[in-house]
Specification:
The protein is mainly alpha-helical. The chain contains 27 helices and 13 strands. It starts with 22 loop residues before the first strand and ends in an 11-residue tail after the last helix.
């Protein structure tokens, strides 16, 4: 890190404006002090200069920085890890102060009540804002997807379905054909029949797809680079305590919302569900700035972000309970019981808001409502488990292939041309998707059709069975029937769609546009499940006398439900990619309303997880965290190596000695030189260089800000002034400059372990307490320091991976 010119920086430079672009250099690191993103505003005015405390006869009096808070002390630099213990301690102190003052006056009591209520009010606002944005995204994406195929003459803002709702000339069998909706060929050449009309529709489809994707990638690149991808790996990292300034800011929210609609509408193999978690977390982070206790405390803010992640899944799938479980199982690092209740409330508000908007126009909250008429049989668990095995194999293959492609993007010239990459992938997707009706339609429509149970009035190719004499039963169930010509055609088209989706999703996920993985993974599984379901159905029809069908599948009965197989396949593939279990099953039955099919879903989910774990331990989000080098300690990963703290701590035998600060023996100039010559984020404070007895730990950022603040506010502080971390200041020589007392910024109880502490215990301490660093001692003497990054490098080394990959990129 370049630290030249460190001493020339004045504390006045920390006073930033309100825009996101205001940046300030401190100790060579770029820090964002915008008041609208992730850091409290520094609104004190020190421009007058020289406000200090004077003693008798104008002699400067020693100031203790505990007397009044210094703006900026206790905050964190970009790409640093928060100190969970310090943040929780600050919140407890704040709470004690409010509780003690509440007994003094009615006004203080009201402030105490409002402080307690502010968390619930914040959850209400997060739910309302996220639900409204999700509704707008759903409606816009549906309209723009249909715009690729045609336009409504009654009003260009109507999508295909809404356009034909009010038409009196539409029959039930041809409910998608109405004179008000015109394809591009009808508008341009006057006819929708013939090869020229087909080519015109094809051309317009590709042109719209390219336009949407070009707008999406251009907006992301120009205004908010953090708006690309799904956002879940980064949110997991942020929730573990890492700081990425601007990732949850207002520009990211605005651009991600717009470009998500464009990316989904372009027809790329991606979904909007993962990015909606990012959108909800942006809402939570921005609204935190309305409440002081969340604005000024990073740990409290992460409780809100955990609840916001639950809100994101709630509005993405219409699954509030699944959203809470998703946040608990998949993304959250610290999830106390209070956060569980608030997540539940926020998810409820968001789901209610989305239901009020009614974006799907079916008065239901669920995305793919299913109504299967026949129960499943115990022997069907065998094909369900086979689907689980397929999901696990597909998940492991997808993760390896996608990570290999993303690594190639990072390490070759491919990564230098993000716009070109998006346009090429969009062009290939559109050119290959249009001829096949199952890849031309939006992925959500495809999944909905695959989940559907065929009824008498269904006009889908998948339901075009051979006519047999049907006696209408009271349960609406149709007996298994022989497949007609259209069903076999649909099977071939679905087989091609399956291969296409499996390959194109590998290169699409991770491009510089918002891209979710839930819907494409579900589509792959739903296609495989529907193919297996139709195969089982025909097997049962033609061979109902086989042993496996005897006793429960008689001729003329409705034995096999292909839509159920599609639902189980979708669950298995999504589980194989993400390694979710409990939350996935709950999301799926909330998503479809298929409550009685929990056991098949559970069987497929567990099978896919076991198979995928056998082929590779990491889910897709953990793999992307490792690829990007985020400092994330995975709680699911076991540490089984017999190493000690002394093997991991720094300095090593060949390294220079540990940089420390003595409690009463160093001048301002010496401390500034130490800061300028090193890039460490903090320094241990010892009694003396000889004794190395530990006194405390001080953060680099707090030290920099406090020294600059003292130069501004305390008269006479110069480079020769002594710095004290002791409780009482020893007597000074008569003509010496006034000393500087910085005991108030020192952590008096840093976490320490002995040099013989087993590393598995140290790793557990870091995981469960969320530490930034831990000091290593021997018989009370300071030996070294272990940081979170040291542990991650050591774990990578033990797993035969490159330890230098643990570097934020």
């Amino acid at each position: 890190m370049d630290n030249t010119g460190y001493c020339s920086e004045s504390f006045n430079s920390l006073q930033s404006g309100t825009s996101d672009e205001d940046m300030v250099e401190i100790a060579g690191a770029t820090l964002d002090f915008s008041s609208t993103d992730d850091v409290p505003p520094l609104d004190r005015d020190y421009s007058s200069g020289g406000s200090y405390v004077a003693g008798p006869n104008g002699v400067p009096k020693l100031m203790d920085l505990l007397d009044e808070p210094v703006p900026g002390v206790g905050t964190y630099e970009d790409f640093n890890t928060i100190d969970w213990v310090r943040e929780k301690s600050k919140d407890r102190d704040r709470h004690r102060e409010i509780a003690s003052k509440s007994k003094e006056s009615t006004w203080a009591l009201l402030k105490s009540i409002s402080d307690a209520f502010s968390g619930w009010l914040l959850m209400l606002l997060v739910g309302l804002m996220s639900g409204a944005l999700a509704g707008g995204i759903d409606i816009s994406a549906h309209w723009m997807t249909d715009l690729k195929e045609g336009v409504c003459l009654n009003g260009f803002w109507f999508n295909h379905e809404h356009c034909c709702w009010n038409s009196n000339e539409t029959t039930f069998q041809e409910r998608d054909n109405c004179p008000q909706w015109k394809s591009w060929a009808e508008l341009i050449v006057g006819s929708n029949d013939g090869p020229f009309a087909y080519i015109m529709n094809y051309l317009m489809y590709v042109c719209w797809a390219l336009l949407f994707s070009f707008l999406a990638v251009s907006l992301v690149r120009a205004f908010a680079p953090y708006a690309c991808g799904s956002g879940i790996p980064e949110i997991k990292t942020i929730l573990s305590g890492f700081i990425i300034r601007g990732y949850l800011g207002k520009w990211t929210l605005m651009i991600k919302t717009i470009t998500l609609v464009l990316a989904v509408s372009s027809g790329l193999s991606l979904g909007k569900e993962g990015p909606l978690v990012h959108v909800a977390c942006c809402c939570g982070n921005i609204l935190c700035h309305l409440f002081t206790k969340y604005r000024k405390n990073e740990a409290k803010r992460r409780e809100v972000l955990s609840a916001a992640a639950a809100v994101g899944v709630s509005v993405a799938f219409g699954a509030p309970i699944g959203g809470v479980l998703f946040s608990l199982e998949e993304v959250s690092y610290y999830f106390p019981l209070k956060t569980l209740w608030r997540s539940f409330f926020a998810a409820l508000v968001a789901a209610f808001t989305l239901r009020s908007i009614n974006p799907f126009g079916n008065s239901r909250l669920v995305l793919f409502y299913v109504e299967f008429h026949s129960p499943w049989h115990l022997l069907e668990l065998i094909p369900f488990i086979l689907l689980g095995i397929f999901g696990g194999i597909w998940g492991a293959f997808f993760i390896r292939a996608n990570i290999a492609w993303c690594r190639r993007r990072k390490t070759t010239r491919l990564g230098h041309y993000p716009v070109l990459e998006v346009l090429v992938v969009t062009a290939v997707t559109a050119l290959l998707a249009f001829p096949n009706s199952y890849t031309r339609m939006s992925t959500s429509e495809l999944i909905s059709e695959l989940f559907n149970d065929c009824g008498l009035l269904d006009s889908s190719q998948l339901c075009n069975y051979a006519n047999v004499s049907v006696t209408k039963s009271s349960s609406d169930a149709l007996p298994d029937r022989p497949a007609g010509h259209d069903v076999y055609t649909a099977m071939w088209q679905l087989s091609l769609a399956l291969i296409f989706k499996m390959l194109i999703t590998v290169v699409t996920f991770g491009m510089k546009v918002p891209s979710g993985l839930f819907i494409p993974s579900m589509a792959v599984g739903a296609i495989a499940g529907r193919l297996l379901g139709v195969g089982m159905e025909q097997l049962a029809y033609y061979h109902h006398d086989w042993v496996i069908f005897k006793g429960w599948c008689s001729p003329g009965a409705d034995c096999i439900t292909p839509g159920l197989y599609a639902m189980v396949g979708a669950t298995a593939c999504l589980g194989g990619v993400t390694r979710m279990t409990v939350s996935l099953v709950v999301i799926m039955f909330e998503l479809t309303g298929g409550l009685e099919y929990i056991v098949p879903l559970m069987a497929a989910t567990m099978t896919s997880k076991w198979v995928a774990d056998a082929l590779g331990r990491e889910g897709i989000y953990e793999a992307h965290i490792r690829l990007n080098g985020y400092p994330f300690l995975e709680s699911k990963e076991e540490f089984s190596h017999k190493t000690l703290a002394m093997d991991v701590m720094r300095p090593r035998r060949s390294d220079p000695p540990l940089s420390v600060i003595t409690q009463d023996g160093m001048s301002v100039e010496e401390v500034e030189s130490l800061i300028a010559e090193t890039s460490y984020s903090g320094f241990p404070v010892v009694v003396s260089h000889e004794s190395q007895r530990l006194v405390g730990f001080v953060q680099r950022r707090d030290l920099v800000i406090s020294i600059e603040n003292a130069r501004q506010r305390q008269e006479g502080v110069v480079s020769a002034s002594r710095i004290f971390f002791t409780e009482y200041t020893p007597p000074q020589p008569p003509n010496s400059p006034p000393p500087l007392k910085l005991r108030g910024i020192m952590d008096l109880s840093p976490f320490t372990v002995t040099d013989h502490t087993a590393m598995d215990i140290v790793v557990d301490i870091f995981r469960k307490l969320g530490l930034r660093q831990c000091l290593v001692t021997h018989n009370g003497r300071l030996l070294g320091i272990i940081t979170k990054k040291d542990i991650l490098k050591h774990m990578a080394q033990m797993a035969n991976r490159d330890p230098d990959s643990i570097l934020f990129n």
